[in-house]
Amino acid sequence: MALLHQADITPTKIDMLSRWAPTQPWFVGDAGGSVTNLAAYRFDDPDGQVGIETILITAGAGPVLQIPVTYRDAPLAGAETSLITTMQHSVLGERWVYDATGDPAYLAAVATAALTGGHQAELTIEIDGQMVVREPTAVVAGSGTPGGAAVTPPTVAEISIRQEPGATVVTAGTLRIVVARVLGDDDVLANQAPDSAHEVLAGTWSEQPTLRALVLVATPA
Description:
Elements: E1 2-4, E2 9-10, H1 13-20, E3 35-43, E4 51-59, E5 64-72, E6 83-89, E7 93-99, H2 104-115, E8 123-127, E9 130-134, E10 138-142, E11 159-164, E12 167-172, E13 175-180, E14 182-183, E15 198-205, E16 208-218
């Protein structure tokens, strides 16, 4: 369960992504155009310390872009190259925001969801002293079999990242995780399916009513 807060954040998520996304090698869209937040989904951190959110945006008339981020209350040692920015949160204070493909918490969460048939976290927010469930703007599910063990987070030192057209490929320990960055007409994950065993995380949102593959997770045979 992800607990949301009625809070002011500076910079806003849209401002943050408007500045950061166009600097990335996978970016497709209008770098000077209006950035629109289409939908988002979250995963729970089992330790309750890290906010894990994936935001789906467009930049101008460009295709949908998938940007997973993590929110931490302190810097993540060794992950300096994955730091997007710091933000001020009116409830939680200063937060360090990371490109989640370099954060062990995200990699473990998305791999667990894909491999065990998991879903996005339930969203709750406190309104007038009552906990209210908020409807998700994106719904995701893994293709794996429910009941499997959760993936252990890798160390930062185990994470290796490379950028490919429309995708980010992460090797973390024995896992290979491919995050589709560009969700356009072509399925960028179609050419990433390895010979080894793999599962996918797929989802829908208002502009995408049919399942779209979002993340591929490969494991040793």
